Amino acid sequence: MRIVCRVLIVSCLLACLLATATASVAADIRTVPSPQPVPRVAALVTAYFHNSHADVIVSRLLQTMTLDDKGERPALRLVSLYVDQPGASTVGLEIARAHHIPIYNTPAEALTLGGKSLAVDGVLLIGEHGRYPLSKTGQVMFPKRRLFSEILAVCDRSNRVVPVYTDKHLADNWEDAKWIYDQAHRRGIPLMAGSTLPLTWRYPPVDVARGSHVSEVVATAYSSLEAYGYHGLEIVQCLAERRAGGETGVRAVQTFEGPRVWQALANGTISRALIEAATSRRRHSLGKPGEPLEKLVKDPVLVVITYRDGLKAGLLWASNLIDFTAAWRDADTGKIESSLFWTQEARPFMHFAYLVKGIEHMIHTGKPAWPVERTLLVTGVLNAYFISKNQGDQRIDTPWLDVRYQSAWDWHQPPPAPPGRPIPGQ
Fold first, then answer.
1. Residue 250 per-residue DSSP state
2. Mean pLDDT, the chain, as a whole number?
3. How far apart are CA 109 and CA 129, in angstroms?
4. 204 alpha carbon, distance to own chain's centre
5. 378 to each of 223, 245, 367, how far by Cα in Å?
6. Nearest-angstrom CA–CA distance, 69 and 60
7. Percentage of the chain with pLDDT > 70?
8. For the chain, is the Cβ count within 10 Å smaller at the N or the C terminus?
9. Axis crossing angle, helix 174-187 with helix 372-390, rounded to the nearest 10
10. Which H/E stretch holds residue 11?
11. pTM of the full predicted structure?
12. What is the dotted CATH code of the domain comprising 35-194?
């Protein structure tokens, strides 16, 4: 009888200890040692709903690369979440709670895990959705500078820095973008930004040869003039930066709209042959074969970029182009190459997996997978073309876009995407 009682007492004690340990995991993730030396990451996001950028980036740390708990698991451990506008949707909060991720009321608490000093190894700043006011240029004023300032404040008082990834462009204006870049550089913070377009599938799988002489680059984009126009500019820049001499910066930007687009092509401001080579790669038909672009394209906008070394680039945006494409001309041979930049427009939006892999590389090594200067320059060009648009399509000289850099980054064709699932579903 005494043996049975002792067994019962020991069993009760073990059960109590197990319950206490389990509660501590959910209550305070700071005290739980990682089974492997996996970097701990805080996510600061503006909004977190189904298929938002927070979902297709942050959720991969919880639901695997295929967003269904069946794929490869990133070697990053999400340990905290801050949502700037949580009222937009409860989806992200529900995902976090299901995985016992603490949700904090301030960015500082998410970075310190409720303590006094920086308690994570990396930060995801996803400022791409939510209801925010427009700037004078008509761009969405996402609070990227404010959230980055919170990161800086915690790093400064902790006397420690960690890698930071900030989604897409650095800010809605050049001043904030340059400030973020300079503050990170001053402190030695590994900083990476940008989107999936440079990383995604290309058909055919071609790239600008490193060190080649390129005379002109063009790309096409659709949907939002700001959000997807950024993607088009990033396609241009990831190709242009490979030219002989590397990146030299941008001298001027000008926007053309409506009939003036076709006039600009007619007078050679941008090569019509290149635009046609790029649009020939689209997978979605615009109309009858052989019809000229003037009849096929709706609401066209053309952005013309003049680089400091003489390179010329153009972005043709139209609401019905649907596909991202690009073309470029070799200055020595005159040869034109072109490609479709394909994204998986179904879950799991697998192109985002390769963005997460780049983030993973930076947080593990402290070295950005691609140059943040690319994003800095594209952010400036994006802002300049909105300024040009608002000033009656005037040419905007951009002496401030003196952004020079060499890129060692190389694009590689990703493996085939897994079968797409319905966008509304899981």
1. E
2. 92
3. 22
4. 23
5. 18, 18, 21
6. 9
7. 92
8. N
9. 160
10. helix 2-27
11. 0.90
12. 3.40.50.720
Angle at which helix 259-266 crosses helix 272-279, to 10 degrees, equals 120
Over 80: is that where the pLDDT of 165 sits? Answer: yes
Tokens (6 digits) for 326: 């690009």
Q: Look at strands 312-317 and 214-221 and give their pairing.
A: parallel
Look up residue 38 and give its DSSP letter.
P
Residue 251 has pLDDT above 60, yes or no: yes
Tallying the residues shown for the chain, one arrives at: 426
Separation between Cα atoms, residue 173 and residue 321, nearest integer Å: 27
Predicted confidence at residue 38, as pLDDT, reads 97
The angle at the Cα of 387, spanning 149 to 312, to the nearest 5 degrees, equals 105
Query: What is the pLDDT, as a whole number, of residue 11?
Result: 40
CB 210, CB 243: distance < 8 Å: no
Evaluate whether 122 touches 162 at the Cβ level (below 8 Å): yes
pLDDT at residue 308, as a whole number: 98
Banded model confidence at residue 13, pLDDT cuts 50, 70, 90: very low
Both tokens of residue 325? 């494409």
Q: How many of the other CB atoms lie within 10 Å of CB of 38? A: 16
Please state whether the peptide bond connecting residue 198 to the residue before it is cis, i.e. omega within 30 degrees of 0.
no
pLDDT > 90: percent of the chain? 87
- Look-up of token digits 């984009």: 221
Residues 6+ apart with CB under 8 A from 91: 48, 49, 50, 55
Domain boundaries, the chain: 35-194, 202-345+371-397
Q: What CA–CA distances, in Å, run from 277 to 55, 281, 389? A: 35, 7, 26
